């Protein structure tokens, strides 16, 4: 275990756009890590983010405590800033400072001027860049006040301050703090490079081309020059530069021009059950809920054996190529062909869960589910009545016939409901009416691949273009519950700095496929030689053509489909047992190392040396 004596003696402040505000993966990083941070640093740890009333009203509690963070916030407030200090209502209850930068909009012109004058970065007219610059100045003001408050503490508590900044949106304060010579050690973490994400999304040879990309020109061509400049200034200005995986470290070195000093793999806050059967029971429970959705969706057109049906899924932000949705769909088409060729009696239902622009849930899809629910209620009523009749027959000492148990009126009611429910066409491939149906990349590829949910096709698809919630009238499951009910998560990303989805599957006891171009995939390839045995598969994408990767993925899917129930139960046990390794209690050590590095680079710089590792 990494042993840092410094860390117990520092004030650590993490700044990010996603504090108390879920937008993407960084929220998961900060929130899941909070208990590990406060366990060690207690109230010497604080997070800073922008104030967003809608989410703050749920996730944040303003407090009136006596901490240097509260005092610094009060000083800033006295000078006119709108700033809230309190606790994030998540496990670990860390201290949080939320800055309402929009309330200081009168300062935007001045901030943009100084950002251009001092750092030669033109914030331009883009609203997001302007927000980031204004927030950056307010964050820098906060750190200055914090320094002043800490200087007033008794000598024994006057520890150094470490400012840890995430992503370009949280990193604009770094060059400002450097320019003002504020005496704090800084860490910058990029969770993806802006330019890399743009370039990878439409260049199938991105990784091969990486060493020869002219980053400045490419950023200009893509119209993201000012964001790129902020990211680069943060990466170069920080005492310690970090990223989340080896893959992104190489990308950052080429595109941002600095090799990260430390890699900070992402973790989770793992909660394991004491008994193995508990999570297996949950699989069964939520699989039943998925079965019900599947019956409601498919059975009005045709039926198949649910006991021989496997549920695959992919999920993530709608970055169609980056998240490997294109490869998944292509592989499903090839899988369909192979299963037909083998005359397999297996059915595969593949879910694609993302968030795309939609009008509403499709009326036909919803109607079918509602009618199925009515049928279920009728069955429940009849079964209650049957229990009464069975008891009556048993009390008479009589063996009942089906007519004794099921009245004619009930039989008729069931038949009528079933007839009304049946439909002529095939089940929809998409659960929603899309806003841009003709241009939607997933829909178009499903059409091109002829994945239409035809009765003779063993591979069925359900494209759910909205994130899952327990209150939805379709599946009625939260994401975690849905994952538990499936058999395999498939995430063959092309661009994925880390990728939480396969790791979450492991924590929930579900096997998954990631890719060797995902940070998590390359991490398990290095750290876990027996990852396949453990139900963590890695699809090869690095330096492989799309076609070869699709064939590799189909082979992986085919061998999974051939597993029997016992194999799958054992595999779920094995995959769940790996999850301890991904706990923040283990992985937070890398943060302590980065913080130590920042302190030593910072001290060296103070003495007139270089910030770079020597
Ligand atoms: C869990 C349950 C078992 C069930 C099994 C189904 O292990 O505890 O009762 O038989 O899941 O597994 P399968 O992979 O076929 O969904
Ligand atoms: C990023 O979020 P994304 O899905 O845009 O940060 C995440 C947290 O580090 C990371 O898991 C993901 O790969 C990145 O892409």
UniProtKB/TrEMBL annotation:
Q: Which Gene3D superfamilies does the entry mention?
A: 6.10.260.10, Glycogen Phosphorylase B
Q: Which UniProt keywords apply?
A: Glycosyltransferase, Transferase
Q: Does the keyword Cytoplasm apply?
A: no
Looking up InterPro entries in the UniProt record yields: Glycogen_synth
Lineage top rank: taxon: Bacteria
Gene Ontology CC terms: cytoplasm
Q: Does the keyword Transferase apply?
A: yes
One GO biological process term = glycogen biosynthetic process
The molecular function GO annotations come to:
alpha-1,4-glucan glucosyltransferase (UDP-glucose donor) activity
UniProt cross-references to PANTHER family, sorted A to Z:
GLYCOGEN [STARCH] SYNTHASE, GLYCOGEN SYNTHASE
What is the protein's name according to its record? Glycogen synthase
The scientific name of the source species is Leptonema illini DSM 21528
